[in-house]
């Protein structure tokens, strides 16, 4: 994806406020050299942030007539208004080693035996993975094929097909689950055992006729 940025000369709270009033967003680009303060068109950035690829892939930033590759690293939104307040990018090249979250795209879920034959509920435990690789190897997303998923089965990180040089960062967790197929709730619930009601205690009735006669 490509976007256009402009060099920003004025800094500070007042300058940033004036930019936002002019429908601009202040930002910064760091890495591979000196940090550069930039400004972007608010509406263009706002709609770009709605696209998955803008968050997870290399971006071509045009700045001052030159194009360089960057990654979106952070952005700040207004607490309740649809306004982008600030954005951070990182310059990268083919030799830059990065750690970045990559979204998971699940396919063929509806055709799996777990869903088609056993009406299982497929639980997506995670929807993205943190990967470490060279910037040039960063995938836009990872495809998880669920076509062979069966009832009771779980897929783990080690089941994900990764490209050469791409490593999943699990923070010490051994092979965590990413998706599972659970049987329908009706099958999980065991029939409650039938417990016989205790025999009712004899009630105190009226005195017998003989006792009454006495």
Report on this structure.
With 214 residues, the protein is an alpha+beta fold. It folds into two domains: 2-92, Ribosomal Protein L25, Chain P (Beta Barrel); 98-182, RNA Polymerase Alpha Subunit, Chain A, domain 2, CATH 2.170.120.20. It is built from six helices and 13 strands. The strands form three sheets. Strands 1-3-2-6-5-4 form a six-stranded mixed barrel. It has a four-stranded mixed β-sheet with strand order 10-7-9-12, with no helix packed on it. The termini are far apart. The mean pLDDT is 87.
Describe the structure in brief:
With 214 residues, the protein is α+β, with helices and mostly antiparallel strands.
Please describe the topology of this protein.
Elements: E1 2-7, H1 13-21, E2 24-30, E3 36-41, H2 42-48, H3 52-56, E4 59-63, E5 66-77, E6 84-91, E7 97-107, H4 113-116, E8 121-124, E9 128-134, E10 142-145, E11 154-156, E12 167-168, E13 177-182, H5 185-188, H6 209-213
Parallel strand pairs: 1-4, 2-6, 7-10
Antiparallel strand pairs: 1-3, 2-3, 4-5, 5-6, 7-9, 8-13, 9-12, 11-13
- Give start-end ranges of low-pLDDT stretches: none
- Look at the structure and name the CATH superfamily of the largest domain: Ribosomal Protein L25, Chain P
Sequence of secondary-structure elements: EHEEHHEEEEHEEEEEEHH
Distance between the termini: 107 Å
Radius of gyration: 31 Å
Give the CATH class of the largest domain.
Mainly Beta
The average pLDDT score comes to 87
Organism: Piscinibacter koreensis
GO cellular component, one term: cytosolic large ribosomal subunit
InterPro entries: Rbsml_bL25/Gln-tRNA_synth_N (IPR020056), Ribosomal_bL25/Gln-tRNA_synth (IPR011035), Ribosomal_bL25_b-dom (IPR020057), Ribosomal_bL25_C (IPR037121), Ribosomal_bL25_long (IPR001021), Ribosomal_L25_dom (IPR029751), Ribosomal_uL5_bac-type (IPR020930)
Subunit structure: Part of the 50S ribosomal subunit; part of the 5S rRNA/L5/L18/L25 subcomplex. Contacts the 5S rRNA. Binds to the 5S rRNA independently of L5 and L18.
């Amino acid at each position: 994806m490509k976007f256009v940025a402009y060099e920003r000369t004025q800094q500070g709270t007042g300058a940033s406020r004036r930019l936002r009033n002019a429908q601009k967003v202040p930002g910064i680009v760091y890495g591979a050299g000196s940090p550069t303060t930039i400004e972007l068109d608010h509406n263009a950035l706002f709609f770009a942030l709605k696209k998955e690829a803008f968050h997870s892939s290399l971006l071509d930033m045009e700045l001052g007539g030159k194009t360089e590759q960057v990654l979106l690293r952070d952005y700040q939104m207004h607490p309740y208004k649809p306004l982008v307040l600030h954005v951070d990018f990182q310059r990268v090249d083919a030799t830059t080693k990065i750690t970045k979250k990559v979204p998971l795209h699940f396919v063929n879920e509806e055709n799996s035996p777990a869903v088609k034959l056993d009406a299982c509920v497929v639980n997506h435990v995670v929807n993205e993975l943190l990967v470490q690789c060279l910037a040039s190897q960063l995938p836009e997303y990872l495809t998880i094929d669920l076509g062979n998923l069966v009832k009771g089965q779980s897929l783990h990180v080690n089941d994900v097909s990764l490209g050469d040089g791409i490593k999943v960062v699990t923070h010490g967790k051994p092979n965590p689950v990413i998706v599972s197929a659970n049987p329908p709730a009706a099958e999980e619930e065991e029939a409650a055992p039938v417990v016989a009601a205790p025999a009712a205690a004899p009630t105190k009735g009226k005195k017998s006729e003989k006792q009454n006669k006495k």
